[in-house]
């Protein structure tokens, strides 16, 4: 009698909860092609093209907009999209002709002004746009961004942008840049309609684009952004009729929803779920190359790492394959060069001996250089990311293979690590990462290894290297540029300013309701290929 | 009574300013928010840095910034978050979720907690009593985030019994399981507290007198025992309202509910000072009000307690 009462007490709320939540299990229409799909993202920072450079925001914008060129999801090369032709003789002045007949979702015709106005807005310093620096190569950028950030610029338009007629305009760069089309494939270069500039804040909540999908309602912060197919779209039409971008803050919550089929696509499965992902998802668990690149900076500014042989010895003593297998369960790849394999021009093994695991040679090299100064290598990392495990593994390998001491040192946040590195403090070797903004070798070489590069916190400074990258930029063709970039990379293999460690991969999964899911190098789902089943 | 309430309200004002000052200075001490805002990604460009510095007075000394903040609060202007959304808007949306969630948790605690506690207290030593004692011990022993994660992964994710995260289309139904997880610990404590209290009161003189007078059992329990037994439980529940709001930070993350705890966590992660300080200030007010409410309820339940 009492037992029955207990059972009843427990069963009633549980049953009620299940009954209430289970009803209406409708994430997407199943059973046919051309339904709606849900894709998990994080909360975007902004949804204005010139103000968006996070993966989640640009994934949404990719549905709403098309640019002059499109980056092919598999080859990562720039291909003409809205542009009918783009020509240049000297890689400095580019004439652009756009295709006729494209319209924005509000009916406004797409013209040269749609691009020129948007780029001017993005480049204007006081607007404080996140992608402001992407326009830095265009002539006149300096006038819009005076060195004194409190001063008001004298002009609001880039001198390098000239309208010829409604469908033609020219762009003049400050200096020749052969791979500029790769840059133009980036989110920041999407066009914006006139309506955007009257109230940018309102536009950010419901961007009006020119792409295959249009907004359905407005952005529900921290919950979702919904888009539906735009009937007036002139380009290749998508197969699905709508997409709900569902916003998650916690990866484990998203993974649970993927398993429950209430979210269709998850583009980054968390490391903690990797060991069970194959069993959970079967052949719906996939990997594809991503542009992310993890490496260990061996700061040249630090006297302990001043000797190139010491740096090379450390890099050679790391068994990357072993760490990839045991810690990342194959979800990453051992790095063998200084640029990601996704960019055109990557050469397998370009890192030379420095990236080949050879403990005996490494030990000999280090002994030849007189051992490691002080005898203890410190590897600094930020504890708010998933880094401790592999840093410890690298440390153990250095201890075993080089016979030196090694300790991992945690900083609370990456910002703390970066501040210390920028102040050239002795924090030993440190963890770094990079993902590309645009698919060009230059986007790895210049910011990471160029003198004064935006992410070169380890003081690498090689005039010959800088000259080769600059020479590559001035080539007339992208292929010519690549040859020069590869020569520059060869110098890195000698100097080893960083120890390349891992190439990232997209580790993604999808529900039973969708098919043809592909995640490209920038971590975006290919929305045109995607379909329901 | 009125004087008492006024005095308490004045104390609250002082407590409020002290806490905001402490939280504000702690956020200030965590360093340059412009470097943290980028997370593991690339550094913000100069144009963005200049704009944020301008908008948030980042180049001004601490006291001046605090003054701007208090001035905003007093004129009911909560300002913008570092991600440039009005905080009033963020909070307005977030509160509705947290209140729904806390209300569900509270209903579980009150109904299951009090009913379970009364039954267990009346039949001390019985099967029901022993089973609840064991179950509540388990719940008290396991941290709520473990319970939450387990529920979200297995019955929610792998077995598909319920939607493992909040879903706006399905509404409040998807908050029931999270609400249960949020209230679990309080529920267990409430059961035990009520049980002890009821068992104790059942042995008291007035119950024996009532029985001797021939009162019905339902009346003895329902009116006399319950009213006396509820005093400690009400104290506990009042304090618990504050805890439920704070505890939501864990539950809301696990079940992806965009409530106050979710926003607070996001703010801390991004070193978004304005958001963190405002949310903490609001939580402080909730706590203070809940405490005041409890103290007033005492007097209602127990006529012997008087405030002057």
Describe this protein's structure:
The complex is a heterodimer of chains A (533) and B (308). Chain A is α+β, with helices and mostly antiparallel strands. Chain A is 32% helix and 19% strand. Chain A contains 17 helices and 19 strands. In chain A, the strands form five sheets. In chain A, strands 11, 12, 13, 14, 15, 16 and 17 form a seven-stranded mixed β-sheet that branches. Chain A has a four-stranded mixed β-sheet with strand order 1-10-9-8, with helices on one face. A four-stranded antiparallel β-sheet of chain A has the order 4-5-7-6, covered by helices on one side. In chain A, helix 10 (308-316) packs antiparallel against helix 12 (359-368) and helix 16 (463-474) packs antiparallel against helix 17 (478-495). The longest helix of chain A is centred in the first third of the chain and has 21 residues, at 2-22. The two termini of chain A are 51 Å apart. Chain B is an all-alpha fold and 308 residues long. In chain B, helix 9 (205-213) crosses helix 10. Classes of the chains: A alpha+beta (533), B mainly alpha (308). Chains A and B meet through helix 1, helix 8 and helix 14 of A and helix 3, helix 5, helix 6, helix 7 and helix 8 of B.
Q: What coarse outline of chain B follows from CA principal-axis ratios?
A: flat
Most extensive interface between two protein chains, with residue counts: A-B, 67 and 69 residues
Largest sheet of chain A: 7 strands, mixed
Span between N and C termini of chain B? 6 Å
Strand content of chain A: 15-25%
What structural class should be given to the helix and strand makeup of chain B? mainly alpha
Structural class of chain A, please? alpha+beta
The amount of beta strand of chain B, in percent, is: under 5%
* Total beta strands of chain B: 0
For the CA atoms, what is the radius of gyration of chain A?
A: 25 Å
Q: Rough shape of chain A?
A: globular
- The separation of the N and C termini of chain A measures 51 Å
Topology, number of strands of chain A: 19
| Largest sheet features of chain B | none
Unreliable residue runs of chain A: 1-29
Oligomeric state of this protein: heterodimer
Q: Which bin fits the share of residues in helices of chain B?
A: over 70%
Q: Approximately how much helix is present in the residues of chain A? A: 25-40%
């Amino acid at each position: 009698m009492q037992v029955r009462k207990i059972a009843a007490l427990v069963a009633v709320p549980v049953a009620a909860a299940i009954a209430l939540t289970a009803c209406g299990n409708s994430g997407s229409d199943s059973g046919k092609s051309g339904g709606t799909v849900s894709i998990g993202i994080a909360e975007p920072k902004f949804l204005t093209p010139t103000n968006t450079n996070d993966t989640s925001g640009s994934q949404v914008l990719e549905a709403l907009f098309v640019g002059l060129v499109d980056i092919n999801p598999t080859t990562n090369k720039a291909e003409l999209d809205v542009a009918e032709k783009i020509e240049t003789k000297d890689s400095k002045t580019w004439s652009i002709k756009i295709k006729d007949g494209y319209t924005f979702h509000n009916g406004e015709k797409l013209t040269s002004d749609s691009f020129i106005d948007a780029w001017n807005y993005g480049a204007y310093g006081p607007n404080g746009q996140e992608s402001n620096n992407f326009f830095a190569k265009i002539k006149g950028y300096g006038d819009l961004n005076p060195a004194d950030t409190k001063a008001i610029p004298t002009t609001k338009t880039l001198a390098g942008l000239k309208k010829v007629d409604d469908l033609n305009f020219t762009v003049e760069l400050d200096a020749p840049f052969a791979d500029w089309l790769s840059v133009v494939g980036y989110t920041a270069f999407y066009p914006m309609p006139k309506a955007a500039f009257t109230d940018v804040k309102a536009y950010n909540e419901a961007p009006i684009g020119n792409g295959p999908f249009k907004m359905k309602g407005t952005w529900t912060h921290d919950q979702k952004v919904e888009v539906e197919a735009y009937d007036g779209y002139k380009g290749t039409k998508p197969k699905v009729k709508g997409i709900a971008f569902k916003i998650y803050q916690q990866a484990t919550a998203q993974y649970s929803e993927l398993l429950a089929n209430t979210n269709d696509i998850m583009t980054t499965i968390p490391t903690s779920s990797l060991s069970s992902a194959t069993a959970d998802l079967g052949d719906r668990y996939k990997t594809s190359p991503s542009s992310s690149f993890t490496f260990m900076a061996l700061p040249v500014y630090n006297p302990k790492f001043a000797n190139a042989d010491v740096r090379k010895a450390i890099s050679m003593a790391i068994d990357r394959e072993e760490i990839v297998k045991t810690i990342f369960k194959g979800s990453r790849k051992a790095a063998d060069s200084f640029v990601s394999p996704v960019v055109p021009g990557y050469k397998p093994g370009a890192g030379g001996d420095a990236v080949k695991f050879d403990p005996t040679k490494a030990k000999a090299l280090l002994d030849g250089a007189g051992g490691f100064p002080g005898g203890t290598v410190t590897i600094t990392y930020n504890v708010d990311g998933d880094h401790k495990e592999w840093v410890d593994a690298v440390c153990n390998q250095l201890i075993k293979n080089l016979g030196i001491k090694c300790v991992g040192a945690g900083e609370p946040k990456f910002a703390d690590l970066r501040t210390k590195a920028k102040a050239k403090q002795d924090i030993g070797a440190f963890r770094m990462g990079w993902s590309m903004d645009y698919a060009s070798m230059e986007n790895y070489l210049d910011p990471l290894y160029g003198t004064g590069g935006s992410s070169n916190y380890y003081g690498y400074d090689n005039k010959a290297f800088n000259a080769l990258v600059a020479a590559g930029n001035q080539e007339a063709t992208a292929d010519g540029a690549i040859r020069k970039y590869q020569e520059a990379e060869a110098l890195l293999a000698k100097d080893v300013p960083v120890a390349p460690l891992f190439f990232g991969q997209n580790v993604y999964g999808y529900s039973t309701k969708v098919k043809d899911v592909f995640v490209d190098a920038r971590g975006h789902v290919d929305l045109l290929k995607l379909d329901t089943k | 009574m009125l004087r008492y309430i006024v005095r308490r309200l004045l104390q609250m004002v002082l407590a409020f300013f002290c806490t905001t000052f402490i939280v504000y200075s702690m956020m200030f001490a965590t360093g340059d928010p412009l470097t943290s805002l980028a997370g593991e990604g690339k550094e913000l460009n100069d144009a963005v840095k200049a704009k944020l510095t301008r908008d948030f007075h980042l180049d001004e000394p601490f006291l001046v910034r605090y003054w701007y903040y208090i001035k905003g609060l007093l004129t009911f202007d909560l300002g913008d978050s570092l991600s440039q959304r009005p905080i009033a808007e963020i909070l307005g949306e977030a509160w509705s979720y947290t209140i729904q969630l806390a209300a569900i948790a509270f209903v579980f605690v009150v109904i299951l907690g009090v009913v379970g506690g009364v039954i267990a207290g009346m039949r001390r030593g019985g099967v029901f009593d022993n089973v609840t004692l064991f179950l509540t011990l388990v719940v008290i022993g396991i941290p709520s985030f473990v319970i939450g994660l387990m529920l979200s992964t297995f019955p929610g994710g792998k077995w598909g019994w319920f939607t493992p995260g909040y879903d706006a289309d399905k509404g409040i139904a998807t908050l029931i399981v999270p609400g249960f997880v949020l209230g679990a610990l309080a529920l267990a404590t409430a059961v035990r507290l009520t049980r002890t209290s009821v068992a104790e009161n059942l042995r008291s003189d007035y119950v024996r007198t009532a029985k001797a007078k021939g009162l019905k059992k339902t009346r003895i329990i329902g009116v006399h025992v319950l009213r006396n037994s509820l005093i400690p439980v009400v104290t506990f529940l009042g304090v618990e309202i504050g805890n439920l709001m704070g505890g939501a930070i864990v539950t809301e993350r696990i079940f992806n509910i965009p409530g106050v705890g979710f926003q607070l966590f996001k703010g801390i992660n991004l070193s978004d000072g304005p958001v963190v300080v405002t949310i903490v200030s609001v939580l402080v007010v909730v706590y203070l009000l809940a405490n005041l409410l409890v103290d007033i309820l005492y007097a209602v339940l127990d006529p012997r307690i008087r405030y002057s």
